[in-house]
Amino acid sequence: MSPHILAIVGPTASGKSELAVAVALRLNGEIVSMDSRQVYRGMDVGTAKLPVVERGGIPHHGLDLLDPDRSYSAGAFAREAQGWIEDIRDRGGVPIVVGGTGFFLRALTQPIFGEPDLDQARRSALRSWLAERPRAELARWTRALDPARYVIAEAGGPQRLSRTLEVALLTGHALSWWHRHAPAEQGALSAMVALLELPREEVDQRIDDRVARMLGGGLVEEVRGLLAKGYGPEDPGMTGVGYREVIAQLRGEIEPDQTADRIRRATRAYARRQATWFRNQLPPAAVRVDGLAPLPERVERVVQAWAQAAVAGGGLLREGANT
């Protein structure tokens, strides 16, 4: 069976966007963003959203969908992405799913359960309360209430931990229980996965360079503008790395010279979690791409692997693979 999608994944700052545009130009592709932060409007600098002039005329889906005070789950992504992918395939194009949010990829290839009805008033109150809890406390409760989900939730950070706790506390069943017993919302897609790999020290250097560009390119002004519109640190979009540190600076909680260091350290930690997720969750047949190779070589590696997968149906990530 030919794969439904081509997925280009890797840690932050690994060059996924550049590679995806170049591959899309070769394959008549369209790009589906698989980034849990780039869905937010008005958050361009801090999410490293690819400027329109650098997109090579390639259609991009999944950007600028929501205001920062709205939540966006892996399930919501899967529902919308299924539609974009179907439309791209109907146009004769190749859907190229690109990003570092592994849970979004899993939601496409291993569809998650249909979420039970939750009382929205109780959910909102619980979410606000959990937002005030330290990460260590959220992790401790998650380990107690949903031990089968703990490793995945902890790797996903405070938002994933809070989500796990919401379901357990409001439904009486752990999130892992729902995954085992509730029917999936939609069918699984098969994916040929290309993983960009770089030495840790190279990723760290690229992160340092990106943070410098963000702060020099208007991140503080972007955050100040979002705060002026009424968005705050408790809003889902504003909890991301870079935004929370700049908010702390603007509130006088840290000095400006501390901001860059905190963002660098938090981003490096996030990149480590991404690498761990990809190492443990992707199938052995996923295509490894040398992130240090020249761009034409990276493109050729992915294009050839896609052609081979289309013929043989091999190297695919499907429902049940490496769960």
What would you call the structural class? alpha/beta
Say what oligomer this is.
Answer: single chain
Report the CATH architecture of the largest domain: 3-Layer(aba) Sandwich
Strand-and-helix sequence, N→C? EHEEHEHHHHHHEHHHHEHE
Major sheet details: 7 strands, mixed
Q: Quick one: CATH class of the largest domain?
A: Alpha Beta
- Which value, in Å, is the CA radius of gyration? 19 Å
Low-confidence segments, ≥5 residues, pLDDT <50? 314-323
Look at the structure and give the mean pLDDT: 90
Helix content: 40-55%
CATH topology of the largest domain: Rossmann fold
Number of helices: 13
Features:
Rossmann fold; 52% helix; alpha/beta; seven-stranded mixed sheet; Histone, subunit A; globular
Structural commentary:
It is a single chain. The protein has 323 residues and is α/β, with parallel strands linked by helices. The protein folds into 2 domains: 5-112 and 185-317, Rossmann fold (3-Layer(aba) Sandwich), CATH 3.40.50.300; 120-181, Histone, subunit A, CATH 1.10.20.140. 52% of the residues lie in helices and 10% in strands. It has helices spanning 16-27, 74-90, 102-109, 120-131, 135-145, 150-155, 157-171, 175-181, 200-216, 219-228, 243-250, 256-281, 295-312, and strands spanning 5-9, 29-33, 60-61, 94-99, 191-197, 287-290, 316-317. Strands 1, 2, 3, 4, 5, 6 and 7 form a 7-stranded mixed beta sheet that branches. Helix 11 packs antiparallel against helix 12 (256-281). The radius of gyration is 19 Å and the shape is globular. Residues 314-323 have low confidence and may be disordered.
